[in-house]
Amino acid sequence: MTISELEGRFLDHIPGVMGVRTHYAVLVPVVEWNGKLHLLFEVRSDALRRQPGEVCFPGGRMEEGESPTQCALRETEEELGIPPSSIRPMARLDDVFMPSHGLMHPVLAQVDTGAVVNMKASAAEVKETFLVPADFFRDQPPLLYTFPLVPRVDDDFPYDLIGFPEGYPWRGGTHQVPIWTYKGHAIWGLTARILLWNFTDRGQNSPAAGSL
Q: What pTM was computed for the model?
C-alpha cells in the first residue's frame, strides 16, 4: 500500500462511532398545551415483538440514505399519523450509544397542537399516547439505578500472546438507568436517558437526583 492509496481510501470518509452497525432516530416532540410546554410520549403496542408496552418517543431504524431528521419524521407519521408539515425540527440532540451496537439519533422538534389533537395513532404499533409537562423532568428528580458492566473473558484468551501470562486487568464500567413515573406510566431506559441529559441539569452530575 502506498501513501496515495491510503489517503484515497479515507478521502471521503465521514468519522463516526467505531463498532456501530445500525442507526436509529427518534423524534423528541414538544407541544404547547394549555399554555405550557409538554412532551409527547407513546406506549408501544402489547402485540409488538420488541419492548411491548414500554413508553417511548416515535422513531425507528434509519433506512438507506436517510438522515436522522428524515427518519424521525417518517416514523412519527407512520406511528402517530402526524405529517411532517405539522412538525418543526429544532435541533439534533446528543447521540446515544446502545450496547447492541446501535446509535440513536434524537431529534428535538415542535409539533403543532392541532396535529396532536387530531392525530390517529397506528393501532398495530401504539397502545396509547400521553403528554407530560416538560418542567416535570426538571423539577422531579428521577430514580437513578446504576449497575456495573463487568468484562467476562473466556478462559482460552491468549494472555501469553499479549505479554500478560497471569491475566490482564480488564477495565469495566457502569450503566445508569433513570426512572420517572407519571400518572401510572414508567418512563425509563433510553427514553429517560435522553430526558435526563437534555431536560435536567445533566442528571448524573446533579445532587438532586435520587438513587436506587
A: 0.87
